[in-house]
Amino acid sequence: MGKDVLTGTYFLTGNEACAAGALAAGCRFFAGYPITPSSEIAERMSIRLPQVGGVYIQMEDEIASMAAILGASWAGAKSMTATSGPGISLMLENIGLGVMTETPCVVVNVMRGGPSTGLPTLVGQADVMQARWGSHGDYEIIALSPSSPQEAFDYTIRAFNLAETWRVPVILLMDEVVGHMRERVVIPERKDIKVANRPGPGEPPGKFKAFKPKKDLIPEMPVAGQGYAIHVTGLTHDERGYPAIEWEAQEKLVYRLVKKIRLNSAKIASWEETGVEGAEIILISYGVSTRICRAVREIAREKGVNLGLFRLEVIWPFPEKRVQELATRIKAFVTVEINYGQIALEVERCVAGKCITQLVGHGGGTVHDPQKVLEAVEEIAS
Fold it and tell me: How many angstroms separate the Cα of 49 from the Cα of each of 26, 37, 42, 104, 171?
């Protein structure tokens, strides 16, 4: 049996680091279908999982891949898939199934330019709203966005921990540049990696209800084969898991699925602030766009413009309270993202006219020209 954590310092791509993070988090099942620019994750997992006693399966398509990782999760395995663009579109129905059945798993979307086949080998960040709203019905979800290979490793572990803690599919929104860039990645010792595991049943078979929430609104989760008779369905269901096709059951179940994320958003949401205190203008970004914004901030400071940076680590749930608070103290938010306005609209909603909001975006294929971002900042500053 091989080691799941290959401790040391390496030069890895974001995709390779993501696979290493999954193994370190305890992932032992991967089902997927190759698609650029995420295929290297599947390739790496196909090599490493058999070495650590795990299972890798190449499925016939992305629909089956998502179904497979849901089933593996109920069988007790931490499970993951990885895809991009059209693949994530195909997975969305079963992501909704994962939300309804409260099945912990991780879905990696290495974003590329779209729509349709679009730019398979080039960068995009236009799947952000799809991650939040792509499936049907009311639900809340968690999505993270790394900006480096090191963060691809760290955030993959974090994604598994969030999935296990809150019993929900978690999406890692990596973009093509981060997935394919190669940088220094430090993998710590196993003892230094914090890993969360789902709470098991606190009652014996016969008394246990698979969807009866605790005080934190999260039900305990049994594993198939442990003797618990459970019905797992995408239909609206009662606390036993049995279908309950009535509005009262819908209200009780779906409202809880929404509340368990919303009421705990302060524990889940995460961001990085650089120089926001005293700044008149703040850049908001995520993923690879953050790297451009850091460079723009340094150039702006040399020109005497006090520019702050607000970088989203967790995109969903969105840190709306902090954005609202900052909006009362600054002149403008400038959102930098590789699309024509997605998080920019969320910023505009939260700000509600308290300060200027501006988008610096484009349709994908390349990262931002720092000069374009700087020009937008200077125009507002003047």
Answer: 10, 21, 10, 19, 21
φ/ψ of residue 196, rounded to 5: -95, 145
Distance, in Å, from the CA atom of 84 to the CA atom of 176, rounded to the nearest integer, reads: 9
**Top CATH class, 8-192:** alpha beta
Q: Which residues pair with residue 356 across a beta bridge?
A: 332
The answer to whether the 8-192 and 271-381 domains have the same CATH topology is yes
Amino acid at 63: I
CA 139-145-148 angle, 5° bins: 165
Phi then psi for residue 12, to 5 deg, are -125, 155
**Whole-number Å distance between alpha carbons of 142 and 29:** 21
The structure tokens listed for 2 are 């091989």
Residue 3: both structure tokens together:
């080691």
With 80 as the cut, is the pLDDT of residue 1 above it? Answer: no
Indicate the DSSP class of residue 368. P
| 3-state SS assignment for residue 291 | helix
pLDDT, one tens digit per residue, over 262-300 is 999 999 999 999 999 999 999 999 999 999 999 999 999
Which CA distances in Å does 220 have to 53, 160, 197?
A: 26, 17, 11
Structural domain boundaries of the chain? 8-192, 271-381
Nearest by Cα to 152 from 270, 21, 316, 313:
21
**pLDDT per residue as tens digits for the range 184-224:** 999 999 999 999 998 889 888 888 998 999 988 999 999 98
- Above 80 in pLDDT, residue 43? yes
Q: Does domain 271-381 have CATH number 3.30.420.40?
A: no
298-342 confidence digits (pLDDT tens): 999 898 889 999 999 999 999 999 999 999 999 999 999 999 999
3-class DSSP state of 294: helix
Residue type, 125: Q
Nearest by Cα to 17 from 36, 44, 39: 44
Between strands 142-144 and 314-316, the pairing is antiparallel
Strand order in the sheet with 356-361: 271-274, 307-312, 281-285, 332-337, 356-361
Per-residue DSSP letters for 25-46?
HTEEEEEE---TTTHHHHHHHH
Residue 290: closest CA among 122, 99, 75, 144 = 144
The C-alpha atoms of residue 82 and residue 167 are separated, in whole angstroms, by 19
Question: 20: which DSSP letter?
Answer: H
